[in-house]
Amino acid sequence: MLNRLLSNDYPRSRVLGAILVLLFLALAFQPFLVPGIKALNVAAKILVFIVLVASFDLLLGYTGIVSFAHTMFFGIGAYGVAIASTRMGAGWGAILLGTLAALALFVLAAAIGLFSLRVRAIFFSMITLAFAAAFQTLASQLSEFTGGEDGLTFKMPEVLSPGFTLSDTPVLGLTLDGRIVCYYLLFATCVVLFLALLRIVNSPFGRVLQAIRENEFRAEAIGYRVVVYRTVSSILSALFATLAGAMLAIWLRYNGPDTTLSFEIMLDVLLIVVIGGMGTIYGAAIGSGLFLVAQSYLQDLLRLASGAVAGLPWLAALLSPDRWLLWLGLLFVLSVYYFPTGVVGRLRALRATTPTSPPSPTAAAAAASHPTKSKQGDYVENN
Question: How many angstroms separate the CA atoms of 98 and 55, rounded?
Answer without folding.
Answer: 20
